[in-house]
Write a structure and sequence with these properties.
This protein is α+β, with helices and mostly antiparallel strands. The protein folds into 3 domains: 2-129; 167-213, SH3 type barrels (Roll); 219-305, Alpha-Beta Plaits (2-Layer Sandwich), CATH 3.30.70. Helix content is 56%, strand content 16%. α1 (2-80) runs antiparallel to α2 (87-93) and α6 (233-249) crosses α7.
């Protein structure tokens, strides 16, 4: 009987000992995990956050410095090269601000995604997760998505190169092949245009095979003016050059004319007239206004000098019988007899 009691007491003592040691063991495990793995995870997250903040600030600082430098150069060139052909390079420098902002935004996004992906791949092994099968599965999924979404990948890659190479930007008038119009938005996947009739076009960047940018740098205004065949060509050239000098010295054309218009020469000769060509570098999208101003000033100069602009005569086609083409009139003006 005493032996049974002693055995029962020993069993109770063992149970009491287990009940007192289990909570201590669980607490020790939690503390050990927090001290080792938990602090490691916190350190990884802190390092990732600090790296993201530092790198993004560096990118923003570079973008800010580039923008300020471009702005200072533009102001200096404005004072130095006013109304000269060197302004064509100035107009290209004006795009540096927009380009720097676009590239900075792209780099910030890439840096953030890369940093947190590396942090995730570093935390998972600390939690006891084997990363190798996940990477292998991700590789297989990536290959499958690459084949299935290769069009989208092509669009995004093309959008990145469009932004980095500065092929066009918002506000440019471009010809992308399927559509011609003013650029309203440039994203990584598509470009949005609005054509002359107001229709909005969405063009996938991967489908853009060529770009004709009509707003980058400068454009050329071309004016063809007919003069009578018997007019003195030297006199005509002198009048055109005097008009070019007046336009170059007129401050009203500072915002549209790049340099002095030039006499290009005789474009064509016929029995009725000579066609002389005048060319001028203009600010993008201002070539139409420059061409109109050149025509107007040359017309006034020709009137004062008595230069005759001939009437370009074209043969009139009289309608013929049904089903037959029209025929020109005879020398006397009478229609040919049947």
């Amino acid at each position: 009987m005493d032996g049974w009691r002693l055995m029962h007491i020993g069993t109770l003592v063992q149970l009491a000992g287990k009940s007192t040691t289990v909570p201590g063991t669980w607490l020790d495990t939690v503390v050990h995990w927090l001290v080792s793995t938990g602090l490691q995870i916190v350190a990884i997250l802190v390092v990732a956050l600090v790296a993201q903040i530092v790198l993004v600030r560096i990118v923003r600082r570079i973008v800010t410095r580039t923008t300020e430098k471009a702005r200072r150069e533009r102001l200096e060139q404005d004072r130095r090269y006013t109304r000269t052909a060197e302004l064509s390079s100035l107009l290209l420098n004006q795009r540096t601000e927009q380009r720097a902002a676009a590239i900075g935004s792209l780099l910030s996004s890439v840096i953030s995604v890369a940093i947190w992906l590396i942090a995730l791949l570093t935390i998972l092994p600390a939690l006891g997760v084997n990363v190798a099968p996940l990477l292998a599965s991700a590789g297989v999924v990536g290959v499958a998505l690459g084949f299935g979404a290769q069009t989208m990948v092509k669009d995004y890659l093309s959008g990145i190169f469009i932004i980095i190479e500065d092929q066009f930007g918002v506000g440019d008038v471009v010809d992308l092949g399927p559509a011609v119009g003013s650029v309203e938005e440039v994203s990584l996947r598509y470009t949005r245009l609005r054509d002359a009739s107001g229709v909005v076009w969405y063009v996938r960047n991967g489908e853009i095979l060529r770009v004709a940018n009509r707003s980058q740098g400068w454009t050329m205004a071309v004016v063809d003016i007919p003069v009578a065949y018997k007019e003195n060509l030297d006199k005509v050239r002198s009048l055109i050059e005097s008009v070019a000098v007046d336009m170059d010295e007129d401050p009203g054309y500072d915002d549209m004319l790049l340099g002095r218009p030039s006499y290009a020469g005789v474009e064509s000769v016929s029995g009725e007239a000579m066609v002389v060509r005048v060319v001028a570098k203009a600010v993008p999208e201002k070539q139409v206004q420059v061409a109109r101003a050149i025509r107007e000033r040359i017309k006034i100069a020709f009137d004062r000098a008595g230069i005759v602009v001939p009437v370009m005569i074209r043969p009139l086609m009289h309608p013929g019988p049904a089903g037959t083409a029209g025929v020109p009139p005879t020398q006397g003006g009478a229609a040919p007899s049947a």
